[in-house]
């Protein structure tokens, strides 16, 4: 029965469902986990990388750039970073759209785009792809971590249907149920960025398949306010910084692992 | 002969504009309101080509209202002024440019600061402590150089504004009659009597 | 070009460059604002100064910010001064037959990968670039600036000496021009840092 209503474009099934959107959501639930935690003095994003391997050229992530491998966490504007889960090719196109939208806002209004407005812009685009003929929806969910003067630090989630919502802590991608219940247990309303970083690392450690964490499987970013300028400052961690963070929280690879890899 | 004056003080902006609608040498109207309230904490006075002025002011007013309905919060003074400037700058290089000069005054609730912007028909934007448009500016700006105080209370600010209006009444060859005065502070934008 | 007034100058020193503008915004002979800066940071190491019609100064500053931000975020590196100069040139030439009424000046230091060399350039209103080795001037006081800079500038000035040279050149030039002045702002750009100073000037 379903095949009659989902093979071509997004049209309602007799039960009132849009199968293409449900399939897009399914694609996301297999993607690398991304979690976000809103603290009182910042926002934290952590993501699990799926594309790994010894032969992958990661030289561009080590020095220069904004940090990150360009797979999961992106800088959208000076006040917004995003973590993506789903089809990476779709995500790249959305990231480019978001960056242009943010710059267009800066051009017209001479201020950084408010975070919710940017999320709304992307959702308008995503919603359009669930309605117009001949197109498939974006197979991407995003977490937006941002700052603006209206609501200070914020965390939003948007899905392929074009819905978005604000969160104190949330998770998308594989094992998001486990992560969310962990976050629900451990989240406190007055959590600081430092505590949120620790919580993010611990939850990632429990949800990821591999027993040991390392920079080749993790991306990490924090948005805080610069102490002197009071402007938002996005920091996407470089591989070495992620390893340092993991060892600080006692989750890094054991020494013998490293020796074994060397052999 | 149209004149507008505006000045900032401690936590407020005062905007004053004449109320004459003139065609050639004839005063057609004595109670024209040339200051639009663009939002809860935003004011804009306008002068220039008759026809253009009201058309442009209403265009700005309705678009800022639409923005507030869409995004649930009004634009703050600085982005509002930047957007208004862009409309004039784009208009300047269009087939039929608006010739409208503005003073935009607002109170930023997020930072608790008053802001005043001088904008001309070319799309020039200046963030200033006090400003004037029209022939009156030649008398009034030097007065404000002498008497303006950014820390002045509302009473002192009104006193300075009265001086400015009196000077225009005295030195301009045509009297402009009554001035309409509006204020914007933390409590919002409203009209006041001098 | 004389509606709003204003002047900008840039000079090369030893491993450093300096760029300065006045602060006046006028409406013909009437001074409207005395806080109107005409020099803007493009990156941490590049500054862009524009003299001419103020509305176009603001519009172009916003256009260049848009283009440079998109360049930076996509390339994941900062733009080189010379690349930026060509961006300025092509943006202006795009309006060859209905130009922006400004003349730009670019001052910066190249990236460490390119040797951290000083770079300055000027252009006319349709984007004809002038890669000068000593100094470039634009604005209503450009004639005065040319004359004084010709006399005061010398090669290989250290940052502090370059600051003194550009400040004296600029202040004395704008004092002879009714459309420029009312204070000035100077940026000294070195490979390590940028020093920004406001200058006291004649307020008349």
From TrEMBL, chain A:
GO terms for cellular component: cytoplasm; nucleus; proteasome core complex, alpha-subunit complex. InterPro entries: Ntn_hydrolases_N, Proteasome_alpha, Proteasome_alpha-type, Proteasome_asu_N, Proteasome_sua/b. Keywords: Cytoplasm, Nucleus, Proteasome. It is found in: Cytoplasm; Nucleus. GO terms for biological process: ubiquitin-dependent protein catabolic process. Signal peptide: none annotated. Transmembrane segments: none annotated. Residues 5-27 form the Proteasome alpha-type subunits domain. Belongs to the peptidase T1A family. The 26S proteasome consists of a 20S proteasome core and two 19S regulatory subunits. The proteasome is a multicatalytic proteinase complex which is characterized by its ability to cleave peptides with Arg, Phe, Tyr, Leu, and Glu adjacent to the leaving group at neutral or slightly basic pH. The proteasome has an ATP-dependent proteolytic activity. PANTHER family: PROTEASOME SUBUNIT ALPHA/BETA (PTHR11599). This is Proteasome subunit alpha type. It comes from Sphaerobolus stellatus (strain SS14). The lineage of its organism: Eukaryota, Fungi, Dikarya, Basidiomycota, Agaricomycotina.
Automatic annotation (TrEMBL), chain B:
Keywords: Cytoplasm, Nucleus, Proteasome. InterPro entries: Ntn_hydrolases_N (IPR029055), Proteasome_alpha (IPR050115), Proteasome_beta2 (IPR035206), Proteasome_bsu_CS (IPR016050), Proteasome_sua/b (IPR001353), Proteasome_suB-type (IPR023333). It is found in: Cytoplasm; Nucleus. Its main location: cytoplasm. GO terms for biological process: proteasomal protein catabolic process. One of its GO terms (cellular component) is nucleus. Component of the proteasome, a multicatalytic proteinase complex which is characterized by its ability to cleave peptides with Arg, Phe, Tyr, Leu, and Glu adjacent to the leaving group at neutral or slightly basic pH. The proteasome has an ATP-dependent proteolytic activity. The 26S proteasome consists of a 20S proteasome core and two 19S regulatory subunits. The 20S proteasome core is composed of 28 subunits that are arranged in four stacked rings, resulting in a barrel-shaped structure. The two end rings are each formed by seven alpha subunits, and the two central rings are each formed by seven beta subunits. The catalytic chamber with the active sites is on the inside of the barrel. Belongs to the peptidase T1B family. This is Proteasome subunit beta. It comes from Sphaerobolus stellatus (strain SS14).
From TrEMBL, chain C:
The keyword Metal-binding does not apply. Its main location: cytoplasm. It is found in: Cytoplasm; Nucleus. Pfam families: Proteasome. One of its GO terms (biological process) is proteasome-mediated ubiquitin-dependent protein catabolic process. The keyword Nucleus applies. Component of the proteasome, a multicatalytic proteinase complex which is characterized by its ability to cleave peptides with Arg, Phe, Tyr, Leu, and Glu adjacent to the leaving group at neutral or slightly basic pH. The proteasome has an ATP-dependent proteolytic activity. Belongs to the peptidase T1B family. This is Proteasome subunit beta. The lineage of its organism: Eukaryota, Fungi, Dikarya, Basidiomycota, Agaricomycotina.
């Amino acid at each position: 029965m379903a095949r009659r209503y989902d093979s071509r474009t997004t049209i309602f099934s007799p039960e009132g469902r849009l199968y293409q959107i449900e399939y897009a959501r399914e694609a996301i639930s297999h993607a690398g986990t991304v979690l976000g935690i809103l603290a009182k003095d910042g926002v934290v994003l952590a993501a699990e990388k799926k594309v790994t391997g010894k032969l992958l050229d990661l030289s561009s992530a080590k020095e220069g750039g904004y940090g990150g491998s360009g797979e999961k966490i992106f800088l959208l504007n000076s006040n917004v970073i995003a973590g993506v889960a789903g089809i990476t090719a779709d995500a790249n196109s959305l990231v480019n759209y978001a960056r242009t939208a943010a710059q267009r806002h800066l051009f017209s209004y001479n201020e950084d785009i408010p975070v919710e407005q940017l999320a709304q812009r992307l959702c308008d685009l995503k919603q359009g792809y669930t309605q117009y003929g001949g197109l498939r929806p974006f197979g991407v969910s995003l977490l937006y971590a941002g700052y603006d003067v209206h609501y200070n630090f914020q965390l939003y989630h948007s899905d392929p249907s074009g819905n978005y919502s604000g969160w104190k802590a949330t998770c998308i991608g594989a094992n998001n149920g486990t992560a969310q219940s962990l976050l629900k247990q451990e989240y406190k309303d007055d959590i600081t960025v430092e505590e949120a970083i620790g919580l993010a690392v611990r939850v990632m450690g429990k949800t990821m398949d591999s027993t040991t964490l390392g920079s080749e499987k993790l991306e990490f970013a924090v948005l805080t306010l610069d102490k002197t300028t009071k402007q938002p400052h996005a920091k996407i961690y470089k591989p070495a910084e992620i390893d340092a963070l993991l060892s600080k929280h006692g989750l890094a690879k054991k020494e013998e692992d490293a020796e074994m890899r060397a052999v | 002969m149209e004149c507008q004056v505006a000045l900032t003080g401690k936590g407020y902006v005062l905007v004053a504009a004449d109320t004459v609608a003139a065609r050639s040498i004839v005063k057609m109207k004595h109670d024209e309101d040339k200051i639009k309230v663009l939002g809860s904490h935003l004011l804009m006075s306008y002068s220039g080509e008759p026809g253009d002025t009201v058309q442009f002011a209403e265009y700005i007013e309705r678009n800022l209202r639409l923005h507030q309905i869409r995004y649930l919060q009004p634009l703050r003074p600085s982005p509002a002024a930047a957007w208004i400037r862009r409309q004039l700058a784009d208009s300047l290089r269009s087939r039929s440019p608006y010739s409208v000069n503005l003073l935009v005054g607002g109170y930023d609730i997020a930072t608790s600061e008053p802001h005043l912007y001088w904008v001309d028909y070319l799309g020039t934007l200046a963030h200033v402590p006090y400003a004037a448009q029209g022939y009156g500016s030649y008398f009034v700006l030097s007065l404000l150089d002498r008497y303006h105080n950014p820390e002045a209370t509302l009473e002192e600010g009104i006193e300075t504004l009265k001086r400015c209006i009196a000077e225009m009444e005295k030195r301009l060859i045509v009297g402009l009659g009554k001035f309409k005065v509006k204020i914007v502070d933390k409590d919002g934008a409203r009209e006041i009597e001098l | 070009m004389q509606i709003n007034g204003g002047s900008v100058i840039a000079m090369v020193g030893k491993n450093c460059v300096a760029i300065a503008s006045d602060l006046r915004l006028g409406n013909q002979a009437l001074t409207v604002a005395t806080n109107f800066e005409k020099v803007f940071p493009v990156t941490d190491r590049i500054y862009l100064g524009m003299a001419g019609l103020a509305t176009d100064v603001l519009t172009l500053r916003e256009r260049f910010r848009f283009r440079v931000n998109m360049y930076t975020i996509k390339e994941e590196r900062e733009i080189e001064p010379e690349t930026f100069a060509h961006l300025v040139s092509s943006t202006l030439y795009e309006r060859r037959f209905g130009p922006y009424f400004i003349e730009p000046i670019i001052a910066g230091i190249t990236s460490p990968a390119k040797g951290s060399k000083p770079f300055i350039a000027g252009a006319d209103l349709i984007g004809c670039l002038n890669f000068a080795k000593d100094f470039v001037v634009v604005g209503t006081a450009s004639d005065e600036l040319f004359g004084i800079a010709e006399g005061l500038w010398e090669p290989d000035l250290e940052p502090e000496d370059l600051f003194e040279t550009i400040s004296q050149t600029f202040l004395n030039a704008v004092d002879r021009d009714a459309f420029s002045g009312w204070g000035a702002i100077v940026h000294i750009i070195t490979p390590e840092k940028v020093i920004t100073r406001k200058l006291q000037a004649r307020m008349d």
